[in-house]
User: What shape does this take?
Amino acid sequence: MSLKLVWRFLLSHPVRSILTCGSIVVAVFLLCVLRTTVVALGSSIEAAAANRLVVQSSVSLFVPLPLSYQPKIEQVDGIEHVIKWTWFGGYYKDPQNFFAQFAVDAAATMEVYPEMEITEGSYDAFLASRQGALIGRDLAEKYEWSVGDRVPIIGTIYPRADGGAWEFDVEAIYDSRNPAFGEQTLLFHHTYFEEVLKAEQGPEALAAGVYIMRIEPGTEPTTVMAAVDALFESGPQRVQTTTEAEFNRQFVTMFGGIPTFLSWIGGSVLFAILLAAINTMLMAGRERTRILGVMKAMGFGSGSVFALFVVEAVVLCGAGGLIGVAFAKLVETPIAVALSTMMPGFVLTTETILAGLAVAVGVGLVAALVPAIAASRLRPVEALRAEV
Amino acid sequence: MSEQALIRVRDVTKTYRRGGEELRVLEELSLEMQEGSFYALMGPSGSGKTTLLNLVGGLDRADSGEVWVGDDELNGMAGAELARWRADHVGFVFQGFNLIPVLTARENVELPLKLAPIGAKRRREQAEYALELVGLADRAKHRPSQLSGGQEQRVAIARALATDPLLLLADEPTGDLDRASADQILDLLQRLNGELSKTILMVTHDPAAAERAQTIVHLDKGRLGRLEHPAAAPTATTGS
Assistant: This one.
């Protein structure tokens, strides 16, 4: 079997080859991006720390918990730290400038989230500043904020009484050691949050979104979870304590069936492209009936003509796969930046690249199968009589 | 039967089934052909000329009877074995030339040599030699679309010769050519037979083409008809 012949066959219909290859490029590109999205949605689950537990209301994530729960939780055996973690839900200047902000117990936050590494400013300065903020590197770069800047954030869930912005002073910038822990987050003091709310809305407005606990090494998480849940069994607000992985999983399911939906889109694209590739190879097979007859008359066996189609389809689809993966790699960073608020961890993994290439080659193999089998079974006498 | 006969066809019957109907193309045909001779097969359409050519070339199998070429009985060979036999023993020339349009003349001639256990350099040399034999060495890099019909057929003959086969089988090789080109092809076939002692079996409707052969074998309704020796060549055919 001649590779030169395969190459010449591909070049003999350049438009058809380019269109088929192009369709594979689009399919593999979409599959890579969609799979990366699905993986990114799930990466927070995989990246969850085994020693972090989350206490939330058993009613809903959106129902806050009383501040009085914290000292009671701290009494449970096996817990190193408990911090408040409250979703703020504001924006910077324009609602489009949305990113994650949390009011936190600053003192223990670094202990609970050691994946943060302060690379500018200092953590002590953050702790010492009443309105201090600790921000991620991507956030700092996106809005060109630096240490010492005062940042106005408009509260949507917690608007200021005068309609103005909450003001935070950037005291430190962190880099994340874990891609699933995003760098587009702003953390500020829960004490400042409570101070303002109490002054403007009264003490009844004070609450915490969730409590996050770091447990001691060797402690059985299920024991701690059961103990915390039992504390508030009789109210006033029952709680549900989960591992961080489970909490993240629940958060991902808030996106509804998006992962499933994306998988369906990917599957449908793949199926459509497979049909297109099969059609191309069938056309190629029909056109070459007489050539195949001549080759068989020369003594080329069934295996050789079978291989001719398989190699041609795999070369065509494989090239499309390579280009598709290259395009996906090209847009990886822009997409990752665009989605970093919602979906940190948008990284084109080696597995995704290999899956994209495998799909391309697989489509080629399947598309080649029908014409290759037909060609290998073709009787030379019939092939030489063919009117093509 | 003569021991010297290269091709021995014995009591061969071949039937095709088309649209539920059986069409008997060869009827207990027996025939011998000598090595190094040039034969023309003539007869009306449907007389079984091409079918006989296909059987002798190992492209098709008889329903019954035996087809011997040298020491090989083709009817008993399996598909892969027959393909290998064709690669080693036969060169085909077709009416429509059947060159591969995406390859150059030299690449077309090289193609059957891919099945031979020789390296790329040797393949190239053999292909160039075959093109020289047919007088087209200067057209080696031309694609079939850049050649005239006569030149295409000469490339096809070079391709058939490239592996130095025992048998050259030509099915209406001048059928698509004008008279001048046809004469060139017939001259070439005669020269290959005369100078290289190639055994040639040519199917033709053209009496002028058949006149070039040493023996004309007439078939009629799948049976052997009369034999002619137009060129007063040594008698080489024995019908039975």
Observations:
- The interface with chain B takes residues 1-2, 4-5, 8-9, 11-12, 290-291, 293-302, 379-381, 384 of chain A (CB under 8 Å).
- The longest strand of chain A covers residues 166-176.
- Residues 64-236 of chain A form one domain.
